């Protein structure tokens, strides 16, 4: 299975640090999964305005369509996910993520911003009919040390548990058909 780890911002490095840690934990539970981190900061983004898409956006869409599961990492800015992440999701066909496992890790500057994950980002993934794990991990700036190393042991334990549950969702999703069964 191909798993796309999405660093959904063009600013900062904490979300990338979270993804690299989750990637390690996933490998502990299932080394057969093919993991790739997609850093939005390395792409030339364009606004979805009807004009032809550039090569980076075409490649991004293709990676989403070809992936069998996702780990999304997002910062929370102004009580919302970044516009670049929402814009990227707006480019995807509605069935691109259907019945594929997904998990969310996030980082914010206040402890209250964890509500954005539950009240804003998860409903978007529900619209796509992703199999979103029931556990997400929200981190605060205080959970990181120098060079964005995760220094909070509880965060490590929660990331490891997120990885464990995500791997189980991957196994479960293998038996699901991606289209509804025709009863006629």
Summarize the structure.
The protein has five helices and six strands. It is α/β, with parallel strands linked by helices.
Can you describe this structure?
This protein is of the alpha/beta class. It has a single domain, classed as Flavodoxin domain (Rossmann fold, 3-Layer(aba) Sandwich), CATH 3.40.50.360. Helix content is 39%, strand content 18%. It has 5 helices and 6 strands. The protein has helices at 14-29, 55-66, 83-90, 114-127, 153-173; strands spanning 2-7, 34-39, 69-75, 101-108, 131-132, 137-140. Strands 1, 2, 3, 4, 5 and 6 form a 6-stranded parallel beta sheet that branches. Strand 1, helix 1 and strand 2 (34-39) form a beta-alpha-beta unit. Helix 1 crosses helix 5 (153-173). It is globular and about 50 Å long. The chain starts with a strand and ends in an 11-residue tail after the last helix. The mean pLDDT is 95.
CATH topology: Rossmann fold
Number of domains: 1
Q: Provide the CATH architecture.
A: 3-Layer(aba) Sandwich
Rg estimate, integer Å? 16 Å
Instruction: Say which CATH homologous superfamily is assigned.
Output: Flavodoxin domain
**Strand tally, please?**
6
Output the helix-strand order: EHEHEHEHEEH
Proportion of residues in β-strands:
15-25%
Report low-confidence residues grouped into runs of 5 or more. Answer: none
Which of globular, elongated, flat, extended, rod-shaped describes the shape? globular
Share of helix among residues?
25-40%
Class by SSE composition? alpha/beta
**Oligomeric state of the chains?**
single chain
Rounded average pLDDT: 95
CATH class: Alpha Beta
Domain NADPH-dependent FMN reductase-like: 1-141
GO molecular function: FMN reductase (NADPH) activity
Pfam families: FMN_red
Enzyme class: oxidoreductase
